[in-house]
Amino acid sequence: MSAFTLLTLKTMSDARGALTVMDGILPFPIVRSFWIYGADGQKRGGHRHHETRQALVALSGTVVVSMDNGEAREEITLSSPGQCLLVEPKDWHEMAFGPGSILLVFASHGYDKDDYIHTPYERL
After folding, report:
1. What does the pLDDT look like over 48-76, one tens digit per residue?
2. Distance (Å, whole) CA 94 – CA 32
3. Which segments constitute the Sugar 3,4-ketoisomerase QdtA cupin domain (predicted)?
4. What is the CATH number of the domain that holds 67?
5. Which domain, by its residues, includes 83?
6. What does each C-alpha distance from 97 to 26, 28, 63, 83 come to in angstroms?
7. What are the CA-CA distances from residue 115 to residues 17, 23, 50, 121 (Å)?
8. Measuring CA to CA, which residue among 113, 122, 104 is closest to residue 50?
9. CA separation for the pair 81, 2 (Å, rounded)
10. First and final CA of the chain: distance in angstroms?
11. What is the DSSP string of 81-101?
12. Is 120 left (phi over 0), alpha (psi -120 to 50) or beta?
């Protein structure tokens, strides 16, 4: 069992394509959203937060998210727009981007540089 929450989003598919819905599933109101693209082969993130909660969805390609909450570490692969990874404030997270990946991020708070913690958890 994972220490982190990976949601399966409701998706309807037919001959016309697929439609994925995120309606009332997040445990926080969305205040800010942004997307990361053109980061093929790069790593992004490498921080945690004081307050901000996030939800990550790989709209295209594959994004491997390294998560660490101070007690558990895990790599979670996002490779479908029907998956949504919840990132709590305590979760150190770093994303590795595969070719053509687009990562959509929903956040509970607006950008505030003072909300970022750039020190990872120390392990003995």
Report:
1. 999 999 999 999 999 999 999 999 999 99
2. 19
3. 5-119
4. 2.60.120.10
5. 1-11+34-101
6. 24, 26, 5, 16
7. 39, 27, 5, 16
8. 113
9. 20
10. 24
11. TTEEEEE-TT-EEEEEE-TT-
12. beta
Beta bridge partners of 107: 32, 54
For the beta sheet containing 92-97, the strands, ordered from the edge strand earlier in sequence to the opposite edge, are: 73-78, 63-68, 92-97, 43-49, 116-117
Residue 38 has which token pair? 């053109």
Rounded CA-CA distance 88/48 in Å is: 8
Please give the DSSP secondary-structure letter assigned to residue 16. Answer: T
Query: What does the pLDDT look like over 92-124, one tens digit per residue?
Result: 999 999 999 999 999 999 999 999 999 999 876
As a whole number of angstroms, the distance between CA 78 and CA 70 comes to 22
